[in-house]
Amino acid sequence: MAFPQQRLRRLRATEPLRRMLRETRLAAADFIYPVFLKEGAGEKAEISSMPGVYHHALDSLLKELEEVSALSIPAVLLFGLPISKDATGSEAFAAKGIVQRGIKAIKTSFPDLMVITDICLCAYTVHGHCGVIENGRVDNDKTLDILQKVAVSHAAAGADMVAPSDMMDGRVGAIRAALDGNGYAEIPIMSYAAKFASHFYGPFREAADSSPRFGDRRNYQMDPANAQEALREIALDIEEGADIIMVKPALAYLDIIFRAREKFGCPLAAYNVSGEYAMVRAAAARGMLDEKQIMMEVLQSIKRAGADLIITYFAKEAAMMLKEG
Fold first, then answer.
1. Res 325: pLDDT
2. Long-range contact list for 252-257, CB < 8 A, 24+ apart?
3. Mean pLDDT, to the nearest integer, of 297-325?
4. Under a CB-based contact definition with an 8 Å cutoff, are residues 244 and 301 in contact?
5. H or E element at residue 193
6. Among all residues, which ones are annotated catalytic?
7. Quick one: what percent of the chain has pLDDT higher than 90?
8. C-alpha closest to that of 200 among 283, 272, 266
9. pLDDT one-digit tens code per residue, 62-93
């Protein structure tokens, strides 16, 4: 049946009708809110390249999480900025490290808020790379030993889930074995399974003080041109024990999110990263677009592509808009 019998505009005529037939629906339960906890910080300090996002001291973070919890956002993704760094990132697995103390404080104040912890070394190493450096390159297998220690230390502190973001080969299997072997078999792993060597991470590197001091990360993060390789990475992580897989970044990689949704039955997260956030904020500040409407359109596109969960710095604003209807 074709025009004039079929008129698709009939189903767009009113807002109630559009709402009834909307295929993709966002909810606060879809969001994970990234937060930055800085050792030695006093009051919260805004990150210059990410307006509205802050470096927090523990007290200011707990205050912000009151709002997060009230908005029914179910989880935070916790990043730590230590006061000292070394060649191997040993502060990342210190029993009284900034993340370990943060986990305990959050779970004490907000027992129902899920704490997901980023497992990587870039913010903890003097060289800014995601692993141990040998002969000018990241040594994959030596890095795995440290990642295991980090994951176990986070679980011991009370983390609900760990999220390795380093892109070392075999890290999911290594972390799974370490967690299981230390009595944490119930702790899920959300793997940054397809993490691309993207230029959209620029503001995050200021936020996490994690810029490489030499070279770049292209020999361990993925080539942005490769889609089939991304599916191989995801398949390997699932085989090694990943409970949730992630695509990062989101907007320039919606095709990867869609392919992963079509191919795998695993829960799927996508990271709406710092550069994507900063672009919207910057354009809105110059009056070039409607920030709230663009924010919601971006998040809706990520979910429409197939993501079950969206890690986003817009989580609070989006949850507030959804709450207000």
1. 82
2. 252/198, 252/200, 252/224, 253/194, 253/196, 253/224, 254/301, 254/302, 254/305, 255/227, 255/305, 256/194, 256/227, 256/230, 257/302, 257/305, 257/306, 257/307
3. 97
4. no
5. strand 190-195
6. 195, 248
7. 92
8. 272
9. 999 999 999 999 999 999 999 999 999 999 99
What's the CA gap between 274 and 310, in Å, rounded?
A: 13
Closest by alpha carbon to 284, among 51, 32, 46? 51
Q: How far from the centroid of its chain's Cα atoms is residue 140's Cα?
A: 22
Within the chain, what is the greatest distance between any pair of CA atoms?
71
Whole-angstrom distance, CA of residue 282 vs CA of residue 279: 5
Rounded Cα gap, residues 242 and 167, in angstroms: 13
Residue with tokens 């040998």: 134
Give the number of other CB atoms < 10 A from CB of residue 296. 17
Identity of the residue numbered 231:
L
Neighbours of 19 (CB within 10 A): 9
- H-state helical runs in the chain: 15-20, 58-70, 98-109, 140-157, 171-181, 202-208, 228-240, 254-263, 274-285, 291-305, 315-324
Cβ neighbours of residue 143 closer than 8 Å, sequence gap 6 or more: 121, 130, 131, 132, 166, 168, 171
Contacts of 239 (CB under 8 A, 6+ apart): none
CB burial of residue 103 (10 Å; 0-12, 13-18, 19+): buried
Q: CA-to-CA distance for 79 and 67, rounded, in angstroms? A: 19
One-letter amino acid for residue 284 of the chain: A
Per DSSP, the three-state class of 79 is strand
Which burial class, exposed, middle or buried, applies to 298 when counting CB atoms under 10 A from its CB (0-12, 13-18, 19+)?
A: buried
Quick one: average pLDDT of 207-221?
88
